Amino acid sequence: MGKVAVLGSINHDVIVTCDRAPRAGETVHGSAVSFYPGGKGSNQAIAAARFGADVSFFGRVGKDSAGLSLLSNLDDDGVNRRYVRISDSLPTGTALITVDRAGNNSIVVVSGANSSMGSSDVAELTDAGCGPNDVLVCQLEIPRETVAEALNAGHELGMTTILNAAPADDVRDLLAVVDVFVVNEREIVPNIGGEYSSRSELTERIAELSAAYQCSTIVTLGAEGCVAALYIDGAISTLDLEVPDVEVVDGTGAGDTFVGVLAACIAAGTDPRESVSLAGIAGSLSTTRKGAQDAMPTRSQVEAFMA
Q: Which residues contact 247 (CB under 8 A, 6 or more apart)?
């Protein structure tokens, strides 16, 4: 079994629940405010660890109470945080999240210490002994040049590289060193040249993308499941999966749960199609509770649900 290395953001999440998100220039009443550990990188590391993977996190926090709390949280979930640095000059990253009555979320992120990640953080992948059996996970909440450098480093080390292009961006210039490309239905648009009109068209276009860059592409579709074009043994295999119908309480972190569990499955040597299926179920289950990390299921919880 390989290890999972997650290089990315770690944030202090402030979640406000309300009947609906405010429009521009509008004020609405909220019903509650909660504080949770978050950040796409940290979320994905926790999701992988909850699913049983050996996980190391590479990131930065500020020298403040939020940063100390986030480090303690990584410890609680068994994530190796030896490679998390503490910034003397920048605060811990913060995300302000509104969640409406339907469980939909809107997010504003202030990067803080995440914005200072660079070459020295990437170099620690080698120091950590990462190699061919291991998985590297990156997102886009840290400097893009750092993400590019990390993916190149992971590729050279023989790791399986996963890129979650969130927030949305055209990352086709990076896909030559990406093995698994994961995005949602909005984040895929700049990478396939524009909007698509149907699920079948989306599948065809990601199959073309995967063939061009020799990588697997997975697009999550929320309650509608996901579609994938998996690059296996030099050929493209498409996949169209539904997810369980559950009562959604909070969709925050569902995509991160999907990515983290997918990484854990790949590191464990699970069949690619089964890995996508397990990740989809885990992501769906994470929407049945509030918060991002607090709602992430364990492997036993996913298996119990499947049974």
A: 288
Residue 135 one-letter amino acid: V
pLDDT of residue 292 exceeding 90, the answer is no
pLDDT of residue 84: 98
Burial class (CB in 10 A: 0-12, 13-18, 19+), 160: buried
Spatial CA neighbour of 173 closest among 204, 131, 145: 145
Examine residue 167 and say whether the peptide bond preceding it is cis (omega within 30 degrees of 0): yes
The whole model's pTM is what? Answer: 0.92
Alpha carbons 64 and 181: distance in angstroms, whole number? 34
- Other beta carbons within 10 angstroms of residue 278's beta carbon come to 22
pLDDT at site 58 = 98
264: pLDDT strictly greater than 80: yes
Structure tokens at 232: 């296996």
In tens, the pLDDT along 15-72 reads 899 999 999 999 999 999 988 898 999 999 999 999 999 999 999 999 999 999 999 9
The residues assigned a catalytic role are 256
Local confidence band at 289 (pLDDT 50, 70, 90 cut-offs) = confident
**φ and ψ of 173, to 5 deg:** -70, -15
pLDDT at 243: 84
Interior angle at CA 215, CA 210 and CA 218, nearest 5: 70
Are 305 and 281 contacting, i.e. CB atoms less than 8 angstroms apart? yes
